[in-house]
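Troubleshooting log. The previous run stalled partway through. Resubmitting the same two chains, unchanged.
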Amino acid sequence: MSTALTLHSVSKSYSTGGRSFKALDQVDLEIEEGKLVVILGPSGAGKSTLLNLIGGMDIPSEGTIMVNGTDISRYSENELADYRAENIGFIFQFYNILPTLTVLENVNLVADLSKNAVDGTRALEAVGLGEHLDKFPNQLSGGEQQRVSIARAIAKNPALLLCDEPTGALDSATGVTILKLLKEQAMKGKTVIIVTHNSLFADIADVVVRLKNGRIRSVTNVENPKSIDEVEW
Amino acid sequence: MLRKKLLRDLRRNLSQFFVIFMMVLLSVMVFSGVHAYMDGMRISAENIYDEYNLADMWLISEGFSEKDLKTVLSDENVQAANRVLTVQTAPDGMDDATLELNVIEDNDVCRMYVFEGEAFDPDSTDGMWLDKEFAAARNLKIGDSVTVSYELYSITAKISGFVETPDHAYSIKDSTEIFPDHNTFGYAYVSAAALPSLLKSFVPFPTVIVDLKDPELFNETKIRLQEALPKILAVTGRSELASYAGYQSEVEEGETYSFVFTALFLFIAILSVITTMHRFIRKERTQIGVLKALGFRRGRIVRHYISYNLVLSIVAAAAGIVAGALIIGRFFLNMEMEYFEMPEAGIVLLPIVYVVAALCVAVIVFVTWLSCRKILNEPASQALRTEVPNVRNTNFSLTTKGIFRKLSTVTKWNLRDIGRNKGRSIAGVVGVMGCTMLVITALGMFDTIQRYLDWQFNVLNRYESYVVVSDNCTDEQLDKLLDIYGNETSRTLAMEVKAGAADAEEQKKDSSASTTQTMLVADAPDSLQITGHRWEPVEMSDDGVYITEKLSKMLGLKAGDKFSWHVYGEDSWYTSTITGTFRDPQNQRFACTRGYIESIGKEYRPDTIYSMDELDRTSVPEGAEVIQTKSGLEAGVRSMLSRMTSVIYLFIAFAALLAVVILYNLGILSYSEKQYQFATLRVLGYRTGALRKIFNQQGRILAIISVVLGLPAGYWMVAYIFEAALGDNYDFPAYIRPVTYIIAGIGIFAVSVLVNDIMSRKIRRIDMVSSLKANE
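Second attempt completed without errors. Output:
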């Protein structure tokens, strides 16, 4: 199995009110393709910062982030945009779908961005929303909106799916459905990285990364992850 | 403590609150400014008319004797009366000028307001009291000698005073002029004692000006005087005096646009309040919850949020009152006083201005309360929770059907975003539409007057000069004049018209339904032309009388109708049929051919002779009163137009500034509403340039809608101004050249695109991470 991405000595510092603090401190991490990776940690551990750096939404203060042999930490603004367009599928806690576009339009919106994009209708059918193509987001439940978000992410056919608390705004039953969809994507060969503070996610992951105070405390490769239905949510 | 919060919030949301401030300021400023000069003009006129005895009645005959004057004075309702002889003279050494010379014996009525020099002296044999504005334009000084010639006579007098009189507030030479030109036309008074001794005992005074004790009893007095003096040919009142009517119509003109612009700016202010406060209160929702949880009463919190716009609008309204009066009021008053002669004219602030300003504040406060009340009424527990979006049936479904399906996703997104943010979109459209309307109005006024010039001087009047035949012209002199200048002539009849009754015989008997009108009797096929509704030439037949469209509406006469009339000074009544209508920009009257007049048995004697040559105005032959050239008339209007240009530039600059302020504010609102969506799109991989295009597309859609709506609104405004503001005598159809629409449309669109483009640069600075977090 080949490496999806490698972080080497990555640090990220922020300055607020004249004071500087390190959100990430000398992080080294290697993630293989096709794995479901769960990044765990309390608030302020640096989980979202790590996700943002991997997703090309931000650049590190120090270190390198190698994706497909290229260091994205040296990318320009437009190169980062192209990187996100081609390689990354984001799934947010609050869905972030555009309220004035229909479900299908929301998904098709990204089709122009990626050379490998798949048909929006197929992506929506894959997440079980084939009946709701022409609905607007405010006509859907929270779980359905998150599925639109997943469909939008997979429609680009990206190598990496980055999920920031993907079930944080959902009830547990809906959350399970969403996790199953994400697990399914990992089984299809995509690398899925989930950032969460919910330690139960560790049971279903292939790799568990634990963060604290901006540093990696442990990286655990799980031999036999549980199926989602086995976990007591 | 909340006061500090208020000040800090105002500072933090400066641009949005600034627009509310500006719009309230502008709406009050326009109202205050226009009313300050308009009411100032009106009140100054009322005072001057009152204090300087503007005549209430003008009696016209072929000549009033001293005995006649005594008869007039003996009427129970006559306070004072003076005999006047008015002639148009050519002052020596002032080639193109005409001086209206008024010979008077006393100055009890239409008294002179003396700016400099001596008061009028009835015994002065060499004094002249000269129109102050004419003197200024001609650089004349007290003590200068002025020689004026009239027919064979000439009078030389020394300027004894610079004056203005209440009956010359709007002083134009004749009906061919619209705008006073003080350089080419003025008026002067001399005492009858100053006339050459030969003339003194033979002076015919064709006018008596009368000051009535009770002007309400005008009609009764008129009937008594006509009975006492059968020689009276006509009796007119103030409303028929060009000076009085012209001044009044100018005052009323202000009413027209003060209301429209005040309402427009207030409407934009209201929309700005709705959008700004709605967004602001939503942002403050949690803080409201906290304040409630801390124990602040709802009323206090409501007062706190209302106080934002209360404070703002009170300051704006107060500033608007002052700035309106001092800037707009003074500017327009000074401009008006270039045309009108009204001593002591100044700006005035009447209570109505304060009432309207207070109303504007009240409206803003009320709208603020309406915009906030929903969130302010929420219980603390609810306000502290994250707001759950209201899931309701969407109204975007239209854009998922028909031709909309073929639009790009981005266009659909923009269209729906416009529909979703109606308040902001309407505010933007109305604002930019208003700016377009302002520009079109400014340029359209220019176009309309240019077209009037073309119509008046190239289409209707094709002569180069005309000679006014003197009333005393003998037959021999007239024949000589016709020999010199040709046979293109006309006569204007002053007549009493009865058009109210259905039957012509009844009309004659009906003493109440008469109006004073004029009829142009034309015998000048090459020099004069009348035109129809769309300027098409109308060939007058000898079968009847033609009437201008506007007069036909005013009198209720249409083609085929009959009406009765007689010429003032003649007893014979005639019944004529309206044969057709025509249109004239500045004379609402009847017209007929010489052939028609002669066919009903009336003798035709011309009072004007037209020439295709540019005549020398200074060599007026015997039998002629004055020579007027078309180029001279046109130059007067063109000089007024050039002065109007500065106002037009001011309008355009103001409109552009307004557009920038409105668009900038709405751009900020639009940007902040879309910020998280743009952050999402950036995360998804959209480049900044692509997002700027999306943002700009919406701005362009709104700008196009605004401009498309603003262009006809501008036309409507020009039509409204020319229709409502000009007097009954004028018929100025609004005309705006296609190129004007294009220039205005492109100009406003360009400003809109520019402001949008500047706003869209903010997209580059979107912090994806914090934008998305902020949304949470």
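Takeaways: The first strand of chain A starts at residue 3 and ends at 16. Chain A has one domain: 33-60+76-227.
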